[in-house]
Amino acid sequence: MSMEPSIPLPLDPSPPPEADEKRLWIGNIDSRLTEYILLKIVQKYGQIKKFDFLFHKSGPLKGQPRGYSFVTYETRDQAEKALAALNGKLALGKHLVVKWAHTAPTESFCVKKPKSAVLGKTPEEAKQTKNTIHQIMAIEAKLKAMEEQREKELEMCLSATRVSTDNPVSTNKSINESQRKQRSVPYNLHEKKCHLARKR
Questions:
Q1: What does the alpha-carbon distance between residue 122 and residue 198 come to, in Å, rounded to a whole number?
Q2: 147, β-bridge pairs
Q3: Where is the composition biased (Polar residues) (predicted)?
Q4: DSSP character string of 88-120
Q5: Is the pTM of this model over 0.70?
Q6: Please, which residues have CB within 8 angstroms of residue 19's CB and are 6 or more apart in sequence?
Q7: Distance (Å, rounded) from C-alpha 40 to C-alpha 13?
Q8: pLDDT, tens digit (0-9, with 9 covering 90-100), for 64-90
């Protein structure tokens, strides 16, 4: 069995090092700021060689801006001038953050995804799940409290029963004493005759 040499797949050509010296990353872009408006803003500082305004390609935010873009100028001086002028500039409701592209944060730092999106749930579904969990926990706590209350009541019933049945002699004794007290009352004549007749 002969082994054929594997042919390496062509890689995307990496940009030349001098391109990084002219390329800027622009972040913290307000979602209302359109690609056209941002392009007009960055053109004020020099000739644009390349402009990348990024959008979400999939997921619930598909078609919406990612909140950052890249711009490459013709010269390093133009890029430096744009960096100095645009960094911290208020554009609509947010202050732009402009850095050299090779020092820019990765996408994971640029776009903060909600935890629920990572788990494959929308924020509404996550909220509904959280509410359901809280309801289940409340029901479980109520059931536990009811169980404890029932155990306390059962314990009270058992302790009350023990007091009355622990000493049956004293209970019988108290009944005999009450009967004697009733008999200590003088007999009426009819009872006396019956009692005497029984003795005979």
A1: 97
A2: none
A3: 163-177
A4: T-EETTEE-EEEEGGGSPPHHHHS---HHHHTT
A5: no
A6: 72
A7: 29
A8: 888 999 999 999 999 999 999 999 999
